[in-house]
Amino acid sequence: MTGAAGQRRVVWSWALYDWANSAFATVVMAGLFPILFQDYWNASATPAVANLRLGWANGLASLVIVLIAPLLGAIADRAGRRKAMLLGFALPAAALTALLALVPAEMGWLAALLFVFATIGFMAANLFYDALLVGIAPPDRWHAVSGFGFGLGYLGGGLVYLGCIIAVLQPQWFGLASAADAALAAFVVTGAWWVLFTLPLAFNVPEPARLVPGPAAISGGLRQLRSTLTHLRVYRPVWLFLLAYFLYIDGVGTTIRMAVAYGRSLGFEQNDLMLALLITQFVGFPAALLMGTIGQRIGARRGILTGLLLYVVIAVWGAFIRSPWEFYVIAGLVGVAQGGVQALSRSFFAGLIPADRAGEFFGFYNVLGKSAALIGPPLFGALGVLFGDVRYSMLALVALFVGGALLLMLIDTREDSPT
Hints:
UMF1 family MFS transporter; Growth Hormone, Chain: A; MFS_trans_sf; ATG22/LtaA_families; MFS_dom; transmembrane
């Protein structure tokens, strides 16, 4: 299959990986794992302490990515192995996700260990997935294609999460003894979903043309990484964007990872929290598609800034919520902001970097994003313990969104014109 039809097949196959791995982001990182971590694996700990432990687990996974992502990206560029390295991280991570179902109650350390390694695989695979964007569509389609991928991710993650919630609420329909059994079984479903919908990318998305042997790729990757670090100051729009991204994606990532645990700490019921996350997912689907189109028209930077302003409103309101209906509304607002900020950040960055070094530069992109998660969730948990009230954690995010927005505005407007 060639021409426009062939390109559509490649784009769909690439975007379906977002559909695949978003099950992990939704069910594990944002949904059921935080609830089970607090109520099942750390039932004897206080909510604040459980949140702190979850924050440190997220931070540890992020630290590993900080250390390995740039080199992995450079090696993948030299070897022409972006897709192969994606699969090498994603498939073991899916297996570790399924293994969470076997962790007994009150074994929080083991649950955290599996979660950390699965999260490392999830984040590392995303590095190579993002880098493949520059080779599957022309530059004038990057905003739309990136938004399409995130849109499918929200829809796919929302659907599998919906199925898991139904199982938790009605475990007897599925031959399960309890809601806890259903929640644990959801990790097996998530791992299988991740593997199944990764297959189109494995078979249909081409690798970059360049290919060198493994040892040469490693040594060449090291040289390329050293060269980029030495000359990064030349790429002012790139490093300025990365600093902005470091700040605002910290707030975005912390919201994703800690929102359910935060709501649980406020005393909201599990059903309320699961419904709120579903709202985020299904609102995020059209929002990501819409923001991709908006990015084509008004420029990615303006779209990102709009999303960050909305996040400031979310953080302030979230610090004072009292009722479940407020949590539902905030969840919808997060869905609107989150999809647009993530999709437009990826495509905006793709337009700033050399296409032949996309893996390496997306390594830095992921390092800045994941190193932000290194401080965000632990800070979120620590403030709740320090002040004895988790509501202070939400207000701490405002500075991250505002600081990122201010840096983003300093980038030369010529780098932000619609393509």
